[in-house]
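re: that chain from earlier
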Amino acid sequence: MNHPKRGLAAVAALSLSAAGLATVAVAPTAQAAPAAPASGVLTWEISQQFDDHLSTHVLGGGATETEDGVITFPGGEGTYDPETYVTSVAYDGSVSGSFAMAGTTYYTVTVADPIVTIGADGEGQISAVVSASNAAAMGSPAAETQPARVVVTTFENEAGSWTQGDAGLDSVTDVPDWAGVLPADSQQATDLGIGAGKPVDGKAFNPAFLANLTSGVRAHFYASGSGSDPKKAPAAFTAQVAPEVLTPTVQVATTSASYSDGLTLQVSGTDFTGVTNPGDNGVYAGLAVSGEMPDTSSQESMDLFAAAAWVPASAISDGSFATTLTAPTAKLDRTKSYSVYTWQAHSHSNTSQDTETPVTIDWSKLAAPVVTPPAKAKSALASSWVKKPTTKKAGRLTVTVRGAAAKPTGRVTVQLVKAGKVKRTLGKALAGGRATFALPRLAAGAWKVRIRYVGSPAYLGSAKTLPLKVRKAGR
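^ sequence. v structure.
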């Protein structure tokens, strides 16, 4: 016998061919796992006929039974969407109902490991591993069927049939289909050996279930025109199910990075919930130092994030969103590692939307650019005497600095040297590339005039020396 959890995917594919169940994505980052909800149970009498006529019940796999004949199948596991009600939940346990008399068991029907499925269109069914047997009696030989998973009954699910219960479990209560399930005199009815005019009003369990019963017990599960027909109808059932717990997943990609514009990240999320508790409105995404989400309780604490963005609930579609984060270079520390965090907006009412996704940063792209100063142009010095100094009169000297580009700026110095010693130093800023110096009266003799242009951001410095013969006045 296949365990229901292992066979769940195959059964869901058969029973929900028109509607796929949502899959649970595994987040790529470490985060606190939500507490697992309690397992649900399926409570079902199957039918009053099963309880009253096949009244010897043998239970297995943890199944239990009330005094009223209601069987509880435990251990419900599977998927359930509380918005669409798309469901596929497998339960454990088995019940074998037998008709026995005077120490002889005449026939037995076993129903084990039921699975409740509901499609997006509200079409539901209960399948189970079914087998049957009957002893040789009244001229008929002994017979048995092998255990096989079949559809036992179907039902129409309506949103109003769902209720929220304790321990994080929802439940659905429905009455399975009965009338019109297997039209009388149809080919299916004929193939099952059901006589003319039967099932009455098409009242029957699902044909697949009838087919896996022996012919000696089949009539207890369709309307054959006997007084017991009302008891043969499928009983109402209640299936408990835990809503699917989605694990939010975040993907982060760098869209741009530069020293001037900072780091821009594209952040996308799946399986997020915009409203978990009343008052919630979407999620936040923020970039901060890795290791632990910063405090989010105040505006001041938000300064711990290098960048943050609010994604309102209206911007989350089918659990997915996309946003961008731009962090200025000045708010990033290249000695630390960074992560993108998400949390419930606005009051962080719960941790179900908490994630941490590490970010790989190419710090070389955020480095300050190295500025290489332009090469300086050469300068040339020219000088002309307005009037040479004498022992009794001052002189004037004009210095001109020339260059290939704009007129040079900066300072020019003039030193008056006699016998190898600097007697006087003068300095002046250029104006229009030119400076005129007033020279003092000088002692008679040989002098040198040392001219030096100190240079500028655009020009190299230059120097020249002029000889000067100072004569005594009157000669």
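The longest helix spans residues 4-15.
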